[in-house]
Amino acid sequence: MHELKRLVRDILLDEGLDVRGKRVLLKPSFVYPARSPACLAVSTQPELVAAVTHVLLERGAAKVWIAEDSLLGPSEVAFSAMGLSQYLAGKGTIVPLQNAPRMSVEIKDPFVESRLIVPRIWREADVFISLPKIKVNIYTDVTLSVKNNFGFLLLKDRLPNHHYNLHKKIADLYRVRPPDLVIVDSVVAGEGQGPMSAEPVPLGVLLAGANSVAVDTVACHLMGFEPRGIEHLRLLHSVGMGPIDLDEIDLESPALLTERARVFRRPRVDFEDVSRHVRVVTGGELCCVSGCAGMIRNSLDQWLGHGQLERLNGFTFVVGKPIDALPALDPGKTIVVGDCAIAHADAGTFIPGCPVPPLSIVTALAKKGRLVPLRIRYRDIVTGYVSNALGRVGQCPYTKHMQ
Questions:
Q1: Does the pLDDT at position 399 exceed 70?
Q2: Which of 22, 54, 210, 268 is most buried when burial is the number of CB atoms within 10 A of its CB?
């Protein structure tokens, strides 16, 4: 961590960010919190989060909050599974976003959502630093600093417009409060079936800057993506939120960008590679990769990545619309996913939603005796639940709530 702290000091010096006497909010990305080597490409690593925390405090920050949520239970699951406390060594204040006070924010001239419910601490912190992981994403092509803000929303607030409007929602959310600084965990990046099943790509760099759109533009070039092809970046550029052309960005080490850039493997969003074991019947006009179809693909990737897809032999998923006629199906092994497919709800287990909640497909399979293989340890999930319960009564030494 010594080298990370040195690099963070250099970044803060280069950016001229004054934190003395200020309350600083850090937002890492713990989307699938697990510390196994296979998950290095998925979440912001705790060594970086701790290094930034320590350097901010040594530079006079009055307070450093580390805020994040979890899709696998209460927010404390993310912090427990990532083992953050051992690296913080008593410094910084963990803020479980699930229970953080919230406020309503109006978005002027929105792309899709005019009102968002966000944590009050996000708006009230003196300095906001985003600490995303660089990786590809089934739903949004890439996950970078603009997308990192999505974790500020509670699950019920994430789901509306998590379909063909997802990029617009991300762009609206970014305008709630752009970061004062971005430090991207690009030491090990992620390609393939991101965000949950991204595979490691060693880049060996830290990417940082004061403008998220500019930082994400550079990250896209590191990954072999055209920034103008990422809708939420294009939308933000259109309203003057940042540049998406390299010649408009001041690069400290342009040669390093050329040296480290590579073409990341894109995620598969079709179902041909799983068809030997699983059948997916899709609608001909509306079948959102950014919504229900992506949720199915993400769930199947968990099985595929563990070499256990054969355990789902004979299962059929029905998604999208219109679907003129279904083939003969086993109702006990059929899952109808999302409101678009509601006309076929009686064909099997129906999961409502537009889109369906992220873990609803995993839950439906579990009820049919098919427990998804996890990379996260079950004891970390249990620890997170216990920490949440104790934190509610002020007895947990692990979770430190905002004063």
A1: no
A2: 54
